[in-house]
């Protein structure tokens, strides 16, 4: 007999993903290792459950945690590709078109692979450069 341990199926729209990122930006205990409650699993679980309770019955704390982990991993992968293209030095910097790139830029403040210069205007999915005071210089 085979046991099914499938994860919950929750449909995440772009809008819900953006809401999750904006919510997490206000919750540094989830993403900032210097936050005093960063290591508290209980406090993290409460934060995930708080988002889940705000947005309906189909969202659970575990579903929110899984999605946030996926978003952070995707951000880190795009950042790694961007840094690799900058390191080539051929003047061709990859263009990030991921819809959550701009919203996740707050993670640059704690990401160990963060950009060394503050110019990410070529990496956004907007045509015009974007000024962002939170970017490291």
TrEMBL record:
Compositional bias of kind Polar residues: 115-127
Bias (Basic and acidic residues): 128-137
Region Disordered: start-end pairs: 115-137
InterPro entries reported for this sequence: MADF-dom (IPR006578), TF_Adf1 (IPR039353)
Transmembrane stretches, start-end: none
Annotated MADF domain residues: 19-112
Any Pfam family: MADF_DNA_bdg
Protein name: Uncharacterized protein LOC113500201
Lineage of the species this protein comes from: Eukaryota, Metazoa, Ecdysozoa, Arthropoda, Hexapoda
């Amino acid at each position: 007999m085979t046991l099914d341990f499938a994860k919950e199926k929750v449909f995440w729209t772009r809008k819900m993903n953006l809401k999750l990122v904006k919510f997490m930006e206000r919750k540094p205990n989830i993403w900032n290792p210097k936050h005093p409650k960063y290591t508290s699993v209980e406090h993290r679980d409460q934060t995930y459950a708080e988002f889940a309770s705000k947005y309906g019955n189909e969202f659970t704390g575990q579903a929110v945690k899984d999605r946030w982990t996926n978003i952070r991993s995707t951000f880190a992968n795009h950042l790694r590709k961007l840094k690799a293209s900058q390191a080539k030095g051929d003047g061709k910097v990859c263009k990030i078109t991921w819809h959550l790139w701009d919203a996740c830029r707050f993670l640059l403040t704690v990401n160990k692979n963060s950009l060394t210069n503050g110019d990410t205007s070529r990496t956004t999915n907007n045509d015009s450069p974007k000024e962002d005071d939170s970017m490291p210089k």
